């Protein structure tokens, strides 16, 4: 089938867009309000957008607590959502009243951040501490939040030979509808970038082993 997004075929009972743009990492966003009360919520419109400086973004449908808190405080955390924490992540997505602490409601312990006020999920194997760079209102009801990462927490057990062992983390992702996926160690593979000639007009196959250089 091939269709205009304004006229979805009857055979597609549900919007396929988010199922096609998948898997999507989950930004498990922690913030605090002006009274110091913590808030936690998962966002599947989330990703890294720069590494120098390291920056991430997430997109909020409507003016939710996370967005209001971050606009007021200028800070937020992003804890990694793993398979072991899937139930807590899901519980923290509940639309609770402003001021209700989703960490407590979902039975998740907090851990203090290094550079900012909002806490991270203590059981998460890694977390990013972010300062608000800017927000951008999209057409419709969504607002994109851009944050610069100013500190990173990583459980030492997740570091192997000087690298984060991504496959061992068993990160979960959103697949569309109510479906999720988990990244297993067996799913991870390496593809080194090809090499180019000095004049940029031809390429050579990549080396067998990564040399530590990003190309």
Separation, N- and C-terminal Cα atoms:
38 Å
Radius of gyration based on Cα positions: 19 Å
The CATH superfamily label reads: Electron Transport, Fmn-binding Protein, Chain A
Q: What would you call the structural class?
A: mainly beta
Description:
This protein is mainly beta. The chain has a single domain, classed as Roll (Pnp Oxidase, Chain A). It is built from 5 helices and 16 strands. The strands form 5 sheets. A 7-stranded antiparallel sheet has the order 3-2-6-9-10-5-4, with helices on one face. The longest helix has 9 residues. The chain is globular and about 60 Å long. The chain starts with 16 loop residues before the first helix and ends in an 11-residue tail after the last strand. The model has no long low-confidence stretch (mean pLDDT 94).
Summarize the structure.
The chain contains 5 helices and 16 strands.
Pick out its properties.
16 strands, mainly beta, 5 helices, 37% strand, Pnp Oxidase, Chain A, 215 residues, 7-stranded antiparallel β-sheet, 3-stranded antiparallel β-sheet
List the helices and strands and how they pair.
Elements: H1 17-20, E1 24-25, E2 27-32, E3 38-43, E4 46-51, E5 54-61, H2 65-73, E6 75-79, H3 86-91, H4 102-105, E7 110-111, E8 120-121, E9 126-137, E10 142-154, E11 159-160, E12 163-164, H5 166-169, E13 172-176, E14 179-182, E15 195-196, E16 203-204
Antiparallel strand pairs: 1-13, 2-3, 2-6, 4-5, 5-10, 6-9, 7-8, 9-10, 11-12, 13-14, 15-16
């Amino acid at each position: 089938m091939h269709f205009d997004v304004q006229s979805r075929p009857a055979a597609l009972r549900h919007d396929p867009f988010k199922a096609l743009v998948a898997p999507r990492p989950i930004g498990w966003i922690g913030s605090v309000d002006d009274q110091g009360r913590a808030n936690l919520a998962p966002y599947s419109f989330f990703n890294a957008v720069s590494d120098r400086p390291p920056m991430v973004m997430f997109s909020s449908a409507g003016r939710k607590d996370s967005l209001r808190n971050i606009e007021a405080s200028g800070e937020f955390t992003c804890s990694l959502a793993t398979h072991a924490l899937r139930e807590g992540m899901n519980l923290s997505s509940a639309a609770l009243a402003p001021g209700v602490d989703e960490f407590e409601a979902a039975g998740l312990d907090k851990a203090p951040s290094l550079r900012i006020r909002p806490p991270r999920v203590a059981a998460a194997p890694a977390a990013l501490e972010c300062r608000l760079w800017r927000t951008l209102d999209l057409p419709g009801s969504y607002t994109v939040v851009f944050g610069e990462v100013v500190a990173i927490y990583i459980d030492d057990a997740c570091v192997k030979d000087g690298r984060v062992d991504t496959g061992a983390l068993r990160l979960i992702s959103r697949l569309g509808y109510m479906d999720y996926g988990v990244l297993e160690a067996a799913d991870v593979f390496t593809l080194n970038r090809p090499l180019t000639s000095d004049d940029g007009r031809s390429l050579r196959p990549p080396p067998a082993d990564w040399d530590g250089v990003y190309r």
